[in-house]
Amino acid sequence: MSTVETATKKMITLISSDGVTFEVEESVAVQSETIKNMIENNIAVTPIPLPNVTSNILLKVIEYCKHHAEAASNAAVYGAVSHKVAEEYVRRFDTEFLKVDQSTLIDLLNAAYNLNIKSLVELTCNKVANMLKWMSIEQLGCTLNTENDFIPE
What we know:
4-stranded mixed sheet; globular; alpha+beta; Potassium Channel Kv1.1, Chain A; 153 residues; 4 strands
């Protein structure tokens, strides 16, 4: 595993499917259950390859994990009042974070699923579900790239 100590913060090296390397704090990286398990079981390689995640999506995932890690850390340090502030901070961030095109949203969902980041899976699934629930059958077919095989009775 590739780790570097910097001012008491352990750094983890991740490499995207297109070969871009990212150095992230361990507290950010372990928001992914997949990466957390690799580190805890000493099976992480140097650097940790993420073959199903491109660099532009990994950058977004890291941004998401950083904000959530910071909010959790601040809430733990400053107590209950800060916990409410952190929840509002996260809610606002999540709302802005999801303002992406449909393709990016699906890529984020796939990355969150592959990296096992439960909060991001839930967030992106809810966004996709809310997006789809207002569509007609025809719109769903176009969006999901499926053929309409509905036979009226």
